[in-house]
Inverse folding.
């Protein structure tokens, strides 16, 4: 039996793994073209056909009440591309587990959040020539713009996890954001990978996991229309920060 890397999803009966929880995966797979997420996944098929990349699908369990909070990371893991076939915090990998833990602590509901990557394909895919993340992020920018233009209503909150996602957003801002995203509040936080998540941020002296939770918590509160007070160390979300 393969190892369970996402025990939180496993305990809740949500683990997306063809090997460990095939019935959960099959149910989710059967719904991939339903509703709002279905429209996005038909677009994913188009991206696959035009780029010849194996792009994972959006998770049909996400954003059931609308994509009010967009959570962007750098690129899918091998598990997302070759394992579940979804970008999901229910995937069976350590980064998905850390993302789920942080969102759970932050009380950021999956029904109002959408997880995606600035590069929608696995950059380190061994079936492809060696590629650099930054170059692939430039190549992928038109697809990120296309996605943002499809989200209606647009997200009011964007959470960028990791420097590659923040740099990609900076390029996007300089090129011109789609109209609906110009007033979105943008927050940055460390990447939830197992190499980064448990460490301490040198600039603030705070745990990276706490910074991720804080960014998600404030984004969720603002998306729900709640009044929030910036943390003592400075705002975790601000208007057009780049």
């Amino acid at each position: 039996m393969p190892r369970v890397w996402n025990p939180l999803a496993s305990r809740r009966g949500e683990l997306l793994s063809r090997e460990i929880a095939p019935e959960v995966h099959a149910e989710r797979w059967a719904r991939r073209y339903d509703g709002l997420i279905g429209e996005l996944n038909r677009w994913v098929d188009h991206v696959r056909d035009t780029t010849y990349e194996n792009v994972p699908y959006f998770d049909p369990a996400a954003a059931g009440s609308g994509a009010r909070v967009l959570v962007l990371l750098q690129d899918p893991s091998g598990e997302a591309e070759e394992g579940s076939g979804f970008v999901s915090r229910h995937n069976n990998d350590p980064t998905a587990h850390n993302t789920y833990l942080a969102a759970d602590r932050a009380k950021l509901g999956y029904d109002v959040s959408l997880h995606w990557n600035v590069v929608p394909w696995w950059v380190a895919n061994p079936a492809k020539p060696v590629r650099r993340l930054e170059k692939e992020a430039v190549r992928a920018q038109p697809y990120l713009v296309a996605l943002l233009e499809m989200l209606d209503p647009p997200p009011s909150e964007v959470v960028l996890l990791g420097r590659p996602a923040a740099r990609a957003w900076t390029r996007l801002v300089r090129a011109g954001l789609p109209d609906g995203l110009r007033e979105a509040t943008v927050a940055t936080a460390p990447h939830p990978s197992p190499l980064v998540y448990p460490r301490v941020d040198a600039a603030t002296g705070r745990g990276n996991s706490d910074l991720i939770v804080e960014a998600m918590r404030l984004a969720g509160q603002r998306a729900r229309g709640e009044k929030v007070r910036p943390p003592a160390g400075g705002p975790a979300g601000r208007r057009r920060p780049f």
